[in-house]
Amino acid sequence: MKQETRFKTTELRVTKAFGKPPIISGYALVYERESEPIGGMFVERIRKGAAKKALRKSDTRALINHDDNLILGRKSAGTLKLREDDTGVFMEIEPPDTSYARDLMVSIERGDIQEQSFRFIVAEGGDEWTEPRSKMPVRTITEFLAIDDVSPVTFPAYPDTTVAVRSLKQAKDAVTGATQVLDIVTDAIGNQSESVLNYWKQEDE
Question: What is the pLDDT of residues 84-99, one digit of tens each?
Answer without folding.
Answer: 999 999 999 999 999 9
